[in-house]
Structures are given as C-alpha cells and as structure tokens.
Amino acid sequence: MKLGKIDEARQVLSWIRKPEEVDDELTSIQEMAEVESEASKNTTWGSLLEGRYRKLVIAGIGVAAFQQFQGANAIFYYIPLIVEKATGQAASDALMWPIIQGIILVAGSLLFLVIAEKFNRRTLLMVGGTVMGLSFIFPALINSFMDAHPMMIVVFLCIYVAFYAVTWAPLTWVLVGELFPLAIRGRGSGLASSFNWIGSFAVGLLFPIMTASMPQEAVFAIFGVICLLGVAFIRFAVPETRGRSLEEIEVLGAGESPAEVSGKPVTNR
Q: Which segments constitute the Major facilitator superfamily (MFS) profile domain (predicted)?
C-alpha cells in the first residue's frame, strides 16, 4: 500500500476476506498508512528517548533482545551437537532432532493461534519464560545430586522449545507491533529487530565457546537465569497491550506504570 500497489493489495485481501469486506478494509489500511506516514514526519531517532515514548521503546527492545538471549537459537543451531555431547551419540546420527524440534515449533505455533486472544500477553510470556527457565536449570540441579540419564537434558530442551513456540516465539513480534505508537513505529520496530538479530548472532557465536569451557548443563543454567530475568522484565517493564488501543498504550508509556495498569481489567478488541 505504501508503494502505491493498490491493485496487488486488493488481490491479496480478496484471498482472505469476503468480497464485500475488501474495499472497506483497503480504505482503512490506506488511512492508517497515511496517518503513520504523517506522524513519522514529525519524529526523529531522538524522539525514541522522549519521556512519552522511552518506556515503550525500552519495553519493545527488551522483549526482542530477551527472546534471543534466552538461548533458543543455541538449541536450533546446535541440537545434533548437544545430543552428541549429552549421550555420546554421533552428531550425524542425531539429525532427526532438528526435525523433532521443527514439529514441536509448528504444533506450538498452531496452539498459539488458539489461545492468543484468551490470555493476556504478559501472562503468557511470564508463564512461558518461567517454564523455559526451569527447563534449563533443572538438569544442572539434578546432575549435581545424582547421575541422571543422558537423555534428560534433551527431554527438558524439548519442553523448553514447546513453551517457547507457544509464547516467546510469536508473542515477541505481536508485542513489538502493538507497543510502538504510529509516530515511532518504524524506527522503534527497526531498533527492536536489530537487537533481536544481535542477540541471535551473540548466542550462535558464544554457545560453542561456552560449552567447550564448561559443562553443557551449566551453560543452559545460565540461559535459564536469563529466562527468569526476562520474566522479571516483563513483570516490571512491559505494559499489557491486549485489548488496548494505541492511544491507551501511549498513555502507559507517558506516565502510569505497567505494574499499576496490569491490574486493571482488559477488554477484548
């Protein structure tokens, strides 16, 4: 729409909307694009640090960064090597595990579609982050008291992936899309995405270095602590966006604390 490809946009909408709904939605999208474009003309990168936006920018960047620094990509990149180190099975014989992880991710994403509007964003992220953190920490705790089965860590990693797929994987980008007011949405979303990719690069680079210098369970325990820090960040720094308009969310960023607002009833959109 922003590129003036109205006919292409109408064709795409016709695939997912009833014929009588296409023109109304097309008009709505055009109006929203014009409002966003006009609003962004009056802002700069420095606007992200203004008082009314600062909390929302910190929340959006923090959620995007925590999604990666929680260690999900360490599993996705290195699962055959993780299984090899845990069980002694050759990495070339553990290639089924990426397929299993993929199936869990798809199933989790489908489940998210069912529950997305039934629970608050913060609730899902805090529950997911807590289970993910404990899934990383428990293997280290158990191994410190007894010799557990080598596959134990792999089972806990599957639990981690399941909750990640239902909560942090999709909800990060839902929140990033909902947190930023129109005036800073482009710059804010771009900055959040940049921190997300920085986290992905850092985890992918550091994980093999860390596992070479300390037990694998200890490395995942560190990621587990980061998961729990992410839960604390959601609790104290991220406002609830479900059922709230852009104007209401901007008010949260300008003054009232997320902790206070989270206790108020949230209506469905």
A: 1-242
Question: Is 266 part of any domain?
Answer: no
Express the helix, strand and coil content of the chain in percent, nearest 5 each.
Answer: 80, 0, 20
Rg (CA), the chain: 21
CB distance 122 to 178 below 8 Å: no
Decide if 164 contacts 62 (C-beta within 8 A). Answer: no
> CA-to-CA distance for 166 and 115, rounded, in angstroms?
9
Residue 191 near residue 61, CB atoms below 8 Å: yes
CA 179-117-131 angle, to 5 degrees, is 85
Domain with 26 in it: 1-36
Residues 152 and 106 in one domain: yes
For residue 237, give the amino acid letter.
A
**57-84 per-position pLDDT tens digit:** 999 999 999 999 999 999 999 988 888 8
